[in-house]
Amino acid sequence: MAKKNFFDIIIRALLTIAGLVLIFNLPIVWPRLVLPETDKTVKPGRPPNNVILPASSLTLSGPPAPPTPDDVIHFVKTLHIHGISYNQARQFGPEAVPILLELLVDPENAPYAANIVVTLGFIGRPEARQPLLDYLTQTKGEVSLDQFRGLTSVPFALSQLSHQGDSASLTFLLRASDPSYWNNHTPPWTYNGQRHKLNLYHKSLLALGLSGRPQALARLEEIAGQGGLSSQEDGDILQQALELNRRVQQEGMAPVVSPNPNLPPAVDMLDAVGSLADDTNANTHLQSFTVARHVNETGLTSNAQVDEILNKATEIMQTVDGVSDISCCIYLQRSGSLGSFSTTDGVIDTGPELSAVFNIGSYQVKVVPSLDYCGGYNTSIIGCALVGNPKNIILEYLGNTTSNGILWAHEFGHNQGLGHVSDSSRIMHNALTLSGSNQMTQAECNAWHSTGYNPGDAIGPCPFQLTAGKALESTAIVTSNAKITYTLKINNNTFDPVTDITVSDTIPISAAYIPGSAVANPAIVTLTNFP
Asked: What is the pLDDT along the chain (531 residues), one digit of tens a residue?
């Protein structure tokens, strides 16, 4: 009887709760309990008896907390070298869409426009469609390179909305797959004085393929069956679109839009963390690079800019930025003047175009207006290189010198045999932040020193030494009571401060020091012990 009363109470309680749900429409969320393993043997079909679990041993799991605006902003303002990660962007829900749309219309966020547009696409919410189309069709006037990359990323974003089931996005891409559409609906913006109708037509074909939708495949096959394409480039784009559709169908979206184009590192760089501030390598190695820009690339135009980037990359590698960072004795410099090339249209969005630019043997670093293909198609890619190959790098030009410096060092690291690491403070992490992504371990530094792939010239002992020199300001004949001015010049050839250094010089016989005449420029040293 006691057992019956007990179960009656339980049943009545459950009915009461059910009644509350029906009357007041109150939701009941049953937390999932994760029970620790027990060594008691449980017979099939019977629950374990007399298992008493302390409350502290129970854990509750549920949906993750929604991202904050700061999370979203940090994500799109990070430089994702090989493109925005599909899986990471998909973690953002609908609450991120208005945040991203607000960022997109703010001119200060132009450097991140492509990242914002691509992330909106990956989230896949149909409410982003019309604002994206408005951004593409209502932007006016001459746009910057950053805006150009964002605007031409819109078809890519629409491919993702279409893939997630937004039929209106698919309808737009089907219409835009006819070149006459862009002749009749030319957006009111220009980049580098051009309307880029052909570029948008090509982007629409690629987006159809990337959508993975059967209607898109049928349209692409229809275009292929009609023949009469106006150029070899049109044919390459169409074949790339068909290939993208096939891959999305077979592999899913993530491997196609977020590939890892690099081989695994030969050394487990995740565990090769040192604690020495100074490079243990015996020599300083000089790495020289021939650099060229595509004729349509308007951001990088001078030797001085190239030197600034390589100098920043050198500084990043030589400076100690954390307890696990070292001062790596590598020096990067330009070889010859900045060149130019006209291979392809400079918008790299197919495998053949990527190969054509990689095959330009006269230059090692090639800077293009837009890099959208590197083992996979993604309009937020900014760099591409092959692991363990002769110097051969394709890059976009970024407006910030520090970003360029980290990006160039990162891609050269691939040439030296290094793969990606998970530690976001390291140069070889696949996403750059200006406040980090600037550290390296001794094992990584050894790869930059390595002569296995791209041998550098040993230019002196490591660590760098100070240099000092003395020069006479005037070559005039010295007469009695004449004033003679000497300049002592001391160079710190590292990017880290050097302290507690004493430099001495002896005044020549028959000369005397004029009190108070010595001046330090800049005033960072103490002048003592005169004469």
From this structure: 444 454 455 445 444 444 433 333 333 333 333 333 333 333 333 333 344 434 444 444 555 567 788 999 999 999 899 999 999 999 999 999 999 999 999 999 999 999 999 999 999 999 999 999 999 999 999 999 999 999 999 999 999 999 999 999 999 999 999 989 999 999 999 998 988 899 999 999 999 999 999 999 999 999 998 876 778 888 999 999 999 999 999 999 999 998 765 544 444 333 333 444 678 888 889 999 999 999 999 999 999 999 999 999 999 998 888 877 888 999 999 999 999 999 999 999 999 999 999 999 999 999 999 999 998 999 999 999 988 889 999 999 998 899 999 999 999 999 998 988 888 889 999 888 766 788 988 888 988 888 789 989 988 887 666 678 888 776 667 778 888 888 888 887 667 677 777 888 888 788 888 888 888 888 777 777 666
Whole-angstrom Cα distance, residue 131 to residue 374? 28
Nearest Cα neighbor of 382 from 79, 163, 156, 152 is 79
Q: For residues 417 and 453, what is the distance between their CA atoms, to the nearest angstrom?
A: 7
Phi-psi region of 41 (alpha: psi -120 to 50; beta: other; left: phi over 0): beta
Nearest by Cα to 203 from 186, 179, 180, 225: 179
Determine contact, residues 73/103, Cβ cutoff 8 Å: yes
Pairing assessment for the beta strands 486-492 and 466-472 based on DSSP bridges: antiparallel
CA nearest to 233, candidates 201, 207, 189, 187: 201
322 near 436, Cβ under 8 Å? no
Distances (CA, A) of 30 to 60, 62, 66, 381: 10, 10, 20, 43
Cα atoms found within 13 Å of the Cα of residue 132, Cβ hemisphere only: 30
Counted residue by residue, the chain has a size of 531
Contact 96, 123 (CB under 8 A): yes
Nearest alpha-carbon partner for 378 in 86, 53, 32, 17: 86
State the Cα–Cα distance between residues 519 and 428, nearest whole angstrom.
Answer: 44
CA atoms within 13 A on the CB side of 56: 0
Centre a 10 Å sphere on the Cβ of residue 121 and count the other Cβ atoms it contains. 33
In angstroms, rounded to a whole number, what is the distance separating the alpha carbons of residues 296 and 370?
10
Tokens encoding 25: 């429409």
Burial class (CB in 10 A: 0-12, 13-18, 19+), 14: exposed
Which residues share a beta bridge with 340? 293
Structure letter (DSSP) for residue 462: S
Prediction pTM value: 0.76
